[in-house]
Amino acid sequence: MILNIESDLQRFRNIVRGKVRKDLKQYMASGEMIGKQGDKYVNIPLPQINIPRLRYGKNEAGGVGAGAGDQGDPVDGAGEGQAGEQPGEHELEAELSMEELAEILGEELQLPRIEPKGKKNLTSVRDRYTGIAKVGPNALRHMRRTWRQALQRQILTGMYDPARPTFVPIKDDFRYRSWSSKAEPQSAAAIVYVMDVSGSMGKEQKEIVRLEAFWIDTWLRANYKTLSTRYVVHDAAAREVDRDTFFRVRESGGTLISSAYKTVEAILDADYPAEEWNVYVFQFSDGDNWSTSDTRLCLELLREKLLPRVNLFAYGQVESEYGSGQFIGDLREGFEADERVVLSRIPDRTAILQSIKDFLGRGR
After folding, report:
1. In the chain, which residues fall in CATH 3.40.50.410?
2. Which CATH number fits domain 187-360: 3.80.30.20, 3.40.50.150, 3.10.310.70, 3.40.50.410?
3. Beta carbons within 8 Å of 202's beta carbon, 6+ residues apart
4. With pLDDT > 90 as the criterion, what percentage of the chain qualifies?
């Protein structure tokens, strides 16, 4: 019975995974998973799966209300409100771990596994049961080895009777699982999200950034044991904020992108040495900058201060009716041959899937 249940559960999970893969683009655009996420799991709404119903009795014509009684007679327990002729909508939620979600994302986008380059001095102690000991707690008693030892003792002492193979282990027969502790290095990554919050970046543009950041985090957490995330917002001036502020802040004014690059440089200087950390910078903007002189300064800061210390610099241009969209062209002209720089246009939510593939498809 247990094996059958486990088989059914695995079959159901495969169905869920298939549904998520099929509608991954829709989930990315809607943000349903983000609103239902926990620390390690997300709840996936699956309205396509019908809730099963049991029907008793013979397969004959009729149905509910077909028994004895006259038209208009009251029904015990009837609900209030107007009756309808359409069936109700049933939505089933299935739980999926963040690791499974990352695996689906990687399979669907054919993302290569990331090869860490930083060597952050982080270790975790992992216990492994590698041997057998003569002493230990009862919870770790190895019954098979204990009975085998008892059998060997009886054979060697001549006490074993093949006609009546019964024996009771004594204290010296008991065997226990033993373990060894091993320190394993962990790869560490730091993500710095940068977003333009000037007057030309509206609510929809910020929501696109929020959705894309969720999926980027999901993939990077599947590749790194330790992940540190920082957030920078800017208009004409830049400042570091927490995650909630990053996605909710509303500001206005002009745009000086160089102010954000200087803030990112200060964060990396203070906390993330390039030789220890795998650093990712994801910048989102509508492509508007205050002046060509500031754009030249941005290219200089990126070339001399940021690129030498990052695995990847990803720029996503979220299209806005108020932004000029010029900055992505300036970056392409300045860094077209540099594999550390990835550029992506994000006209709307449906482009999030392709944008993530652009950013993470190089496996850096």
Report:
1. 187-360
2. 3.40.50.410
3. 320, 322
4. 27
